[in-house]
């Protein structure tokens, strides 16, 4: 467990009543909810009374009064048993051989680096001239991307289109993706691809040495007409452009940390959406990336609080996402006849649904 979290600012993500004590089993929770999850999923004591189905069908508001709803909430928040938190009474191997551990660490980072190399290369050199939809990006593995010439100057819509294509391609190359059902694949992508794009844009901005989020050639991350709409109240747009960039710069996020944090963000094994085998595969992948990130921090001689600092980035990403969804929603409501290509219409719809 990662301790030292600022409990004055964040409540437990399960009960939403007590201060969060730290990051345990995949979520920021209080001690009571951490121990509840441990009793149910880790120790599995035969003395514990089996959980009875909720009498309200899972709609309880006070988690501590209903064990079924509390357990559902734990799983929904992403809590999963991880190998380093399992008790010794389970008789699991205590030590993974150093050679196996080192190989896993090296292979994991190299795998993500190669995915990101391909994503970046396509992003910087290709254009899409098709009117693609979100479903097209999920179901098809090949798109008609043309080589971008040096004299062509992409605008916001060009950059944003290839940004979405390359982000979704990146996510589809995780090893478990082909095992997912059609609806599972769609949910897997739509649940985090906007957040992943937000993180990619912020990291790219750091590399471009800009103080606010931009695309290459100083192209803004908002279209011209939207900037004009918000010209008398630019605070929201500026917050979206700057908040996450400032956080990454403050923490001096490394490329390896960026990739591993991206993988943790993407691999969210939401229960009741995936089949149990697929949920476990996604959870195992997230645990792998979490272990690798922790080991990376150790090899870089970072203090223990570094992991907590890195996980705090995810909160900033989701706050930026909420702000992003809000400004687009307001803009869309004020311009109901807005004509957009399919991908941007789907993008806007998903942003509003996930807000």
TrEMBL record:
PANTHER family per the UniProt record, alphabetical: NR LBD DOMAIN-CONTAINING PROTEIN-RELATED, NUCLEAR HORMONE RECEPTOR FAMILY-RELATED-RELATED
GO molecular function list: DNA-binding transcription factor activity; sequence-specific DNA binding; zinc ion binding
Alphabetical UniProt keywords: DNA-binding, Metal-binding, Nucleus, Receptor, Transcription, Transcription regulation, Zinc, Zinc-finger
Entry coiled-coil feature ranges: none
Location of the NR LBD domain: 118-350
Species classification: Eukaryota, Metazoa, Ecdysozoa, Nematoda, Chromadorea
Name of the featured protein: Uncharacterized protein
Gene3D superfamilies linked to this entry: Erythroid Transcription Factor GATA-1, subunit A, Retinoid X Receptor
Family of this protein: Belongs to the nuclear hormone receptor family.
Ranges where the Nuclear receptor domain occurs: 9-86
